[in-house]
Amino acid sequence: MLEVTEAAQARLKDLLGRDDKLETHGLRMKVVGGGCSGLQYQLSLDSDFSETDHIVEAGPVKVVVDEKSALYLVGVTLDFVDTLQESGFKIGNPNASTTCGCGESFAA
Questions:
Q1: Distance (Å, whole) CA 11 – CA 99
Q2: What pLDDT does residue 81 have?
Q3: What is the CATH number of domain 2-107?
Q4: Of residues 31, 38, 35, the one with CA closest to residue 54
Q5: What value does the mean pLDDT of the chain take?
Q6: Of 27, 23, 69, 62, which Cα lies nearest the Cα of 45?
């Protein structure tokens, strides 16, 4: 469904390991309405998984996607960058037809 780079796995492992949540929590990726282009990503740490969630095991971490968001996240690459110019999770989405100038939202 989606790819999680080694850099993103390491960052998630670090975040979840700080509070001993590596076994119980995962990164929830959602697509919600909003932003300049109509859709935007929402990332959060979550332990409440439903039966309809898609759970992607990526090394030591889990990425959780609800059914509705899964339609927009097929083929996505989740990466983590930490440079002088930017720091944070980056999402490469081949399904995005357009993105806004700031890169915070997309259309599919």
A1: 25
A2: 96
A3: 2.60.300.12
A4: 31
A5: 91
A6: 27
pTM, two decimals, is: 0.87
CA distance 102 to 2: 23
User: What gap in Å lies between CA 20 and CA 1, rounded to an integer?
Assistant: 27
CA distances from 74 to 3, 56, 57, 66, 88 (A): 9, 12, 15, 12, 21
21 token code pair: 């949540």
**Distance, CA of 98 to CA of 84 (rounded, Å):** 26
Domain residue ranges of the chain, discontinuous segments joined by +: 2-107
Measured in whole angstroms, how far is the alpha carbon of residue 3 from the centre of its chain?
Answer: 10
What per-residue string of b and e applies to 25-34 under the rule 16 or more CB within 10 Å gives b? bbbbbbbeee
